[in-house]
Design a protein that fits this description.
The complex is a heterodimer. By secondary structure, chain A is of the alpha/beta class. In chain A, strands 2-1-3-4 form a four-stranded parallel beta sheet, sandwiched between helices. In chain A, helix 1 crosses helix 4. The longest helix of chain A is centred in the last third of the chain and has 18 residues. The N terminus of chain A is likely disordered. By secondary structure, chain B is α/β, with parallel strands linked by helices. Chain B contains twelve helices and eight strands. In chain B, the strands form two sheets. Chain B has a five-stranded mixed beta sheet with strand order 2-1-3-4-8. A three-stranded antiparallel beta sheet of chain B has the order 5-6-7. In chain B, helix 8 crosses helix 10. The longest helix of chain B is centred in the C-terminal third of the chain and has 15 residues. Chain B starts with a helix and ends in a 28-residue tail after the last helix. Classes of the chains: A alpha/beta, B alpha/beta. The interface between A and B is large, with 39 and 47 residues. Chain A: GO terms for molecular function: iron-sulfur cluster binding; metal ion binding; oxidoreductase activity.
Amino acid sequence: MSGSSGLLAEGQDLRIVGFLCNWCSYGGADTAGVARFEQPTDLRVIRVPCSGRIDPLFIARALMSGADGVLVSGCHPRDCHYAEGNFYARRRFEMLKQFLSVTGIDPERFHYTWVSASEGQRWQDVVTSFTERIHKLGPAPKMSGGTGYDEECLKEIAAAVSCGEQCPCHKEKA
Amino acid sequence: MQALAELKEQIRQALPDLDVVIGWQQGFDALHTRPLFIRSEEDIDKLVVNEFCVVNPASYLRELRGGKKVGLVLKGCDSRSVIELLQEDLLKEEDLTIFGFGCNGILNHTKLQARFGELGFIQSIENDGANVTVVVGDNKETVPFTELCADKCLTCVYPNTLQCSHFVGEESTKKPESEKNKALEEFEKLSLEERFAFWQDQMRRCIRCYACRNACPMCVCKDHCIANSREPKWLSEEVDVQNNFMFQLIHVMHLTGRCVECGECERACPMDIPIMLLRRKMAGVIRDVFAYNAGTNAEDTPPLMCFKVEEPTIEERH
């Protein structure tokens, strides 16, 4: 199904996972919906009690499992419903964001921001700009599945076995 | 070795008040040491301290928690793991007696093997600090120490045991060869696609034996590791690239701001997968953002266990 929104070029929807805090961003997204702001349809929202509930591993797991982007949104700092959840969250997300590049996963695929319950318009901007960014990057590179022995690997092993005593590992030992 | 005799004497005096002292003893050949658990007087004589003492004795502390009085012979890098555990209130300072010394670097068996082939052929090995002389058959070869030592020793800034109760010998004046780890610097020059392909390739070799986790002194919840839990199920038992890589990410994330870069995980890896690249990167990020070095001061709070309302080093994302 292609996104029906006029905001993005026609094309395949990508998978974007959104973790939204129950108290601000989920309300903000709701406000945007009630106000009928047009939004791209790539985002799948997961509601969490607080941005402090989000283990950075949720984000890693989503990216490893084939999400093309992950958007995390919580209350603005100082406005946390639980007083300090997002302060801890901010540190964790920043660590993850700066670390991601070494794994070869583009850090641009992960974005965290703060949207309050009244910021329907801002929510629309956040989702639209992030979705555009992900569409520019295109689908995420896929983890090669398999159990370590893909066809190429098996061919190599078969070739080594077929040469018997002549294979390099035997020569080294001789 | 004057200092070793002195160290043994210190242990002899402290032993009556301790349940066990962990150090190193000679392994099956000249190149290997194995952990030594000193429980009686006669065990003390088995103690060796040399450039092959690669194991981090702090890794055994988890099993010895709960009021046991433990003594430890620690290198500078090992002592950081103990301090980190003290910071997290996982150990009590009064239960620990730490015997320290100045370390001049340790050798890396993987590098030795790469340089000299099967280690079984090596008859004797001598290390004068700058060069390592190895006798293989009739050949005598001298190699600079920096080519054979563990990667962590090249960037080591804590050659002396930190916060120890007893210190023997002279303090080591070893200076780091370089500020940043060369392998990581080289790796970071690659493009994202190349890095991704590199890890795909490396993780294909991983057999998920969990040696990296079990050797890690900071993995304190080994018995309840989320990698093995069924509820929630983070990982399948299948050994494929995705699960292997996810496991590495779990390990790195759980060590964020706690990893003391002791290198035990990579040393324990039977497949020699360069997983320290990930750990070093994360430790580097922690250093950049929070100006914090894990396990250097028992009074500090690890950076992810606290926060500031205004983060001067984190860009505001309004």
